[in-house]
Amino acid sequence: MNKKSKFSIKTLLNSFKHALRGVKIAVKEEDNAKIHLGIGIIMYVLSAVLKLKKMEIVAVLFSIGFVVVAELFNSAIENLCDFVQPNHHKQIKKIKDISAAAVLISAITAFIIGVLIYTDYLMNIASRFLTP
Ligand SMILES: Nc1ncnc2c1ncn2[C@@H]1O[C@H](COP(=O)(O)OP(=O)(O)OP(=O)(O)O)[C@@H](O)[C@H]1O
């Protein structure tokens, strides 16, 4: 566990493999991860369809990544909590609630960024259809 491993391409590839397994587990087991990933994909497709500016796409990608990362950490913390304390415990409640709060804050932030970016584009499209 504590031994220092030398850098090699094989170790690097193994780390990627472990990380990808983690993504697969989260998507398979966590409903919220599926929902957030779905919303992320929709936001990204919408960015391409609406032809957003480069910095707007950067903001959208950052928002998606922010929520997905918060979701992954939350899942890891939930799993750790369930492993160390399968029974109801007020300290576990506190830890899980704080962890869930991180996801909530990330999702609200991404939502506000989405509204700020997409509103102008969607209003433009709507006005084209509504003006005679
Ligand atoms: N062992 C526990 N002890 C005390 N409270 C708990 C415990 N497990 C869950 N809770 C409470 O229930 C809430 C939901 O926890 P849970 O682990 O079911 O996550 P979830 O919101 O259902 O997420 P997910 O659907 O991703 O698993 C927690 O935020 C916490 O308030």
Automatic annotation (TrEMBL):
Topology in the lipid bilayer: Multi-pass membrane protein
Active-site residue numbers: 71 (proton acceptor)
Subcellular localization: Cell membrane
Keywords recorded for this protein, A-Z: ATP-binding, Cell membrane, Kinase, Lipid biosynthesis, Lipid metabolism, Magnesium, Membrane, Metal-binding, Nucleotide-binding, Phospholipid biosynthesis, Phospholipid metabolism, Transferase, Transmembrane, Transmembrane helix
Pfam families referenced in this protein's UniProt entry, alphabetically: DAGK_prokar
Organism: Marinifilum flexuosum
Cofactor: binding details: Mn(2+), Zn(2+), Cd(2+) and Co(2+) support activity to lesser extents.
Protein name: Undecaprenol kinase
GO CC term (a single one): plasma membrane
UniProt record similarity statement: Belongs to the bacterial diacylglycerol kinase family.
Residues binding substrate: 71
Coiled coil (UniProt feature): none
Binding-site positions, ATP: 30, 78, 96-97
Source superkingdom: Bacteria
